[in-house]
Structures are given as C-alpha cells and as structure tokens.
Design brief:
The complex is a heterodimer of chains A (about 300) and B (about 325).
Chain A lengths: L9 H10 L8 H6 L2 H18 L1 H4 L39 H37 L1 H15 L3 H12 L3 H11 L2 H15 L2 H8 L4 H37 L11 H8 L7 H29 L6
Helix pairs in contact in A: 3-5, 3-13, 5-6, 5-8, 5-9, 5-11, 5-13, 6-9, 7-8, 9-11, 10-11, 11-12, 11-13, 12-13
Chain B lengths: L6 E12 L2 E13 L4 E5 L6 H9 L7 E3 L2 E4 L2 E2 L5 H7 L4 E4 L13 H11 L5 H14 L5 H4 L9 H13 L5 E5 L7 H18 L2 E6 L2 H7 L2 E6 L2 E7 H6 L4 H8 L50 E3 L3 E3 L13
Parallel strand pairs in B: 3-9, 3-10, 7-8, 8-9
Antiparallel strand pairs in B: 1-2, 1-4, 1-5, 5-6, 10-11, 11-13, 12-13
Helix pairs in contact in B: 3-4, 4-6, 6-7
Chain lengths: ~300, ~325
C-alpha cells in the first residue's frame, strides 16, 4: 500500500499558521482612509445633509417670503456692488432669498431621492433575489415584469400619473419608487444567481438552514456590495428625475423650493442672470456626483473579499 | 441485529432528465453505515458518488428525482420525514463536508460566526457555549491560535485551514453520521493525507459513522472499514476493506487497485495500470453490466442483467465471473 507518500509533518503547517500576523483592528482604518473618493464624497454629502436638516436655522430668510423691491439681486460673486449682504446668493424674480431656497431645496431632493430609492430598492431586491434563488417559473415571472417595466417610458408614465393625481411630494416619491426598481431586480437577480451556485449555499442547507434564513444570512450579505452601488445610483437617478419632472412642471409644485423647479423658474431670465440657473444646477450636479462616488467607495469597502 | 445501523440506504436511484433523455445517474445503490464505522465510496468522476451523498442528505438539485426503497438515519425514515424535520436533522445528526473548502465557507461571515451559527441554530446552547465549542474543535482539528482565528474571514485562511474549519463545523453538534464528499480533492497534495488522518482520528474518537467519498483508493486502504466501489451509477462491489483489497471480485475493482502506485513493489519507470476506454453514457436504459465495454473478461452473458452475488463477510459484487478468476490476474 502507498505508505511512503511524502507528507509534510503537521507541525510545519501549524508553524506557518502561527507565523501569520494576527488580524488587528487598525488594519481597517487605512483601507477607508486611502479611498479619497469615499472621504471627499462623504464630506460633501454630509455637508448637504446637514444643510438640509438644519435649513430652518441656517437659512437667513423664509424661503417663501417675497420682496418685490429686492427682485433679481445678484450674488456677491457676480456683482459685489449691487449685492446685498442680507442676500449673499442674491434673490430670485420674486425677491425670495436664493440661499434659503437652495438650503430648503436640498431637503426636497434628498427626501425624494432617499424614499424613492427605498421603495424601488425593496421592490426590486425582493423580486431579484427570489428570481435568482428559485429560478424556473419565479424567474420567468420576474423577467417578464422587468421587461414590461423597461418598455414603459418613465417620463410618460410620470406625466400620466401626475396629471391624474396632481403633483406632490408623495406622488413623485411613489411614481419614482414604482418605476426605478428594474435595475435593482436585474442586478440582484444575476448576483443572487451567482451566489446560489456556490457551495456555501449547499453547506448552509446541509447544516439545516431554512430558505428564508439562507436568503437573509447567506445570500444577502454576499450581494450587498452590488446592492449598495445600485442604491446609490438609483438615488442619484431619482434626484435627477425629480429635478427633470419639476422642471417640466410635473413634479413638486411651486412655491416649494425644489432645485429642479428653481432651474425651471430661472430659465426665463437665463440670458440676463445666468447665475440663477447655475446655482441650483451645480447643486444637483454636486449632490448626484457625491452620491455616486460614495456608492463606489462603499462598494470597495463592502466586497466580502475586502473585509479584514 | 441488536441496534439499527446508523445509515440504511436501499435501492437508491437518482434520475436526471436531460434534453437527450433521462440520465440514470445513480442506479439501485444500497449502502449501510454502522456507528463507529468508516465506509469509503470509491469510483471515478461521474459515477454517482457525490449524487449518492447528496441524495442521502436530501440536497439534490431540484431537477434530479430520487427514489429509494429505504433511507433511514438511526432507524428514522428520511423518505417520509417532513422538510422541517429534515432541516432539524441536517447539521445536528448528520453533517456533510464538501469538496471545495474555497467555496463552501461564506465569504461574508467570519469563521466564528459560521461555526457558532450551526450550534445555536440547533439549540445546543447560547453564544458563549457555541464559542467555547468552536474554540475547542478548532484546536482539536489542529488550528493554532483558535480564539484569534474565529474573528478571521475565510479568504484569510489557506485551503488546508479552511477544510479544517469545515470539519470543525461539521462536528459542532456531534453528529452521528458525517458524509465527506471528496474532502481533499481541492487541496494541495502535501496536506491531503493530514486532513484524512484527522478525519479518521476524529471518527474513532467520537465513534461516528463516516461515509467518505473519494476517488483515491490508496487513501481508502488506510482508513476504511468497508469499501463500496461504484461504477456508472452502480455499486459493483462492496465489502470489508481487507477482503475487497486482497480478493477483489469485480474486474473494475481489480483495475482500480492496479492503478495505485506501490513504490516498494514496482521498478522505477514502470507504468501504472490503466483501465482502457471511457465510462458509458448513462442516458436511456442501461442494460447488463455497464463495465463490459472496458472489461478484459467480458462475455456474452454480461449483456444480460447481472445479479449481485454474495460471499462471506457481507461481501457483495456484481459480476458473472467465477470468484477465483481475478485472484492472480493483473
């Protein structure tokens, strides 16, 4: 019998293990510290969130207060002589303080972006995970629903719904939530499908785990990194769509200070006061960029292989 | 028989519908594992070894159809058990060690979380007890600094360490029966023997029934009490390890034994034995001995159904040859 197979003594292997450095908690710090995009976007996003939450205290004026005497005042960096210290970012064509409206506008954008993302994320993730895990008929039904959804133009549907129910914050959140789940479903489906074939799912069944437990404990943590990226992308997408809908007059209704609405209101004086359109436009751009970068950064941190 | 055997499996068939027809992946397999006994199931790739162990656990892919006359764990019928009861048994009374330790640990959870989960899931105790058990078992399977290892994630461990963790995980609830499906195939050759010796030691120490699926007959000779040789979805020979090795009754078994390198008996440069040909397709009805296309002793009657024959010591084989034919063959 093949007794003479050369085998390293078990002791050698153990010695090699012992030589491995023990994991230390501080290894986690450099990982996120090295990620400049993550830190930068987190800071920007934190600033916007603080501005949104603290708007009632930070805003120098009531964002709805009109003052026809002080219409179209320029911000300090456009025309320092005409600018008034009370309105550092000027006033709009109804004399409302632009800084205050921008601060309150952040609330609308974040609120709609976040809740639309949550609603669509719940719908899409449940559908995608079930389709990817069970396959077969479930998969067919979900794929059919995704295809159906993809054949619906968002703006058209939103237009129809808003014209029936009227534009309001809740309607916009629900419309976007029920329209933006397709990418969640598609990505979660393929990510789950991939994980489902791994042996640890079989191993989990072999230790007696039930299906809900496997989905929650084994599948979800392994698809979380894709979920984070999609969630950030969809939140940014929802914010952009809200701006677009409001710009078209189908989203948030005046006098609510939505950034999209502010762009829309400023377009009439765009040639004379270009800063009026640039400020909310830049705000939308920075917010969307920050959310996307944050999603990428978190993804890098949460890929299971990246944990320490 | 005073006590029911740990695992009774009789007449197991697994059929997989494919586009070309029904694939009879496992055909009429009967196995028995007693407490404190190691049964090795050997055979080449695709002969149904893994499917047999998955069928015992009730973890076949949904497309596969399982039929059996009897499947019982310590006398308890598994064929009629509810899914809930099966989940309670899996991991607690019977555990499985998988082939590839690289993919059978969940990368999202630390080793400790995964070890403790099975213990808590089966109501064996609280987290503190689970942790103590996990540390004790990790030390037992030869992992240094077990307490520190609990916080690590699978990707931080080498293949050999992961398989040791998998073994510890299978043993968390002290199951009576452990199914090991080629536990060393994915590992480096130098640590394969270490893992197998560990399994054999633990089996003796905990008085478990161990069903070891492997394609390495050399390993079988060292640790098996009984051997079942599978070919093309069928058990072609089964019996006590010593009997099967010294007096094989099936030409396939003989061929497998001749493939084992034996450094002290062979001249350097001498070629190992091989079995010519390929495993036949199992799609459609399989008639007669599936090995006859590769067998040096094939006869016309091999095409008819070959009835199992029995010798002393529960030795069973499916071959029409007179028992002595193979004694001096090869």
């Amino acid at each position: 019998m093949p007794g003479s197979t050369p085998v390293s003594a078990p002791g050698e292997e153990l010695a090699a293990q012992a030589a491995l450095p023990a994991p230390v908690a501080s290894q986690r710090r450099p990982r996120w510290r090295r990620n400049a995009g993550l830190i930068g976007s987190a800071l920007v996003l934190a600033a916007i969130v603080i501005a949104a939450l603290g708007a009632p205290w930070l805003a120098p004026h009531d964002p709805y207060l009109q003052s026809l005497d002080d219409r179209l005042l320029p911000p300090f960096f456009v025309d320092a002589e005409r600018a008034m210290p009370a309105h550092p970012l000027g006033t709009d064509n109804l004399g409302r303080d632009y800084l205050s409206r921008l601060l309150y506008g952040a609330r609308i954008s974040l609120l709609i972006g976040f809740f639309a993302m949550v609603v669509s994320g719940l719908i899409g993730t449940v559908m995608g995970v079930l389709a990817g895990y069970f396959g077969g008929r479930t998969d067919t039904v979900v794929s059919f629903l995704v295809t159906t959804r993809l054949s619906l133009p968002i703006i058209m549907v939103a237009l129809a719904v808003v014209s029936v129910f009227g534009g309001s914050l809740e309607v916009v959140v629900l419309v976007l939530g029920f329209l933006l789940w397709d990418r969640f479903a598609v990505v979660m489906r393929s990510a789950t499908h991939q994980v489902r074939g791994r042996e640890y799912i079989l191993a989990a069944q072999a230790i007696g785990c039930s299906v809900p437990r496997i989905l929650w404990q084994e599948v979800l943590p392994n698809v979380l990194s894709s979920l984070v990226v999609i969630a950030s992308y969809e939140m940014a997408q929802a914010i952009l769509l809200e701006a677009a809908l409001s710009f078209l007059g189908l989203g948030v209704q005046p006098p609510l200070p939505s950034w999209g609405l502010m762009v829309s209101e400023a377009k009439e004086v765009m040639l004379f006061e270009p800063w009026m359109i640039m400020l909310p436009g830049a705000a939308i751009c920075v917010l969307v960029l920050a959310i996307n970068l944050l999603g990428d950064g978190i993804r890098d941190l949460t890929v299971p292989e990246g944990r320490a | 028989m005073s006590e029911a055997p740990l695992l009774e499996l009789a007449g197991l068939s697994v059929d997989i519908p494919t586009e070309a027809g029904v694939l009879h992946a496992v055909r009429d397999v009967s196995l028995t594992v007693r407490r404190g006994e190691t049964l090795c199931v050997v055979g080449e790739s695709g002969c149904g070894k893994s499917l047999t162990s998955l069928a015992i656990m009730g973890l076949l892919p949904p497309a596969a159809q399982r039929r059996a006359r009897r499947l019982a764990l310590a006398g308890e019928d598994l064929l009629s058990a509810s899914p809930r009861r099966l989940r309670a048994l899996r991991g607690d009374r019977m555990a499985m060690i998988f082939q590839d330790p690289m993919t059978s640990l969940n990368p999202a959870w630390s080793v400790g979380d995964q070890l403790e989960e099975i213990f808590i899931r089966h109501g064996k105790g609280n987290r503190r007890a689970a942790r103590e058990r996990a540390v004790a078992l990790l030390e037992r399977v030869g992992i240094a600094n077990a307490g520190g290892r609990l916080a690590q994630y699978p990707h931080q461990l080498s293949g050999g360490l992961r398989q040791r963790v998998m073994i510890a995980m299978a043993l968390m609830c002290s199951p009576g029966l452990v199914l090991a499906d080629e536990p060393t195939t994915a590992l480096d050759a130098t640590i394969q023997l270490g893992i197998l010796q560990l399994l054999a030691e633990l089996q003796a120490e905990m008085h478990m029934g161990l069903m070891l699926v492997t394609h390495d007959l050399g390993i079988v000779a060292r640790i098996a009490d009984r051997v079942a040789v599978m070919y093309a979805g069928e058990v072609v020979e089964e019996g006590p390890a010593r009997t099967v090795f010294t007096a094989p009754r099936h030409p396939y078994t003989r061929g497998l034994i001749d493939c084992i390198p034996q450094p002290d008996r062979m001249a350097p440069g001498q070629r190992l034995g091989t079995i010519p040909g390929m495993v036949p397709s199992l799609v459609g009805e399989v008639q007669g001995c599936a090995f006859r296309t590769r067998c040096a002793f094939a006869r016309p009657e091999c095409a008819a159904t070959v009835a199992p024959r029995h010798g002393p010591d529960d030795h069973m084989w499916r071959c029409v040859l007179p028992p002595e034919t193979l004694d001096h063959a090869a």
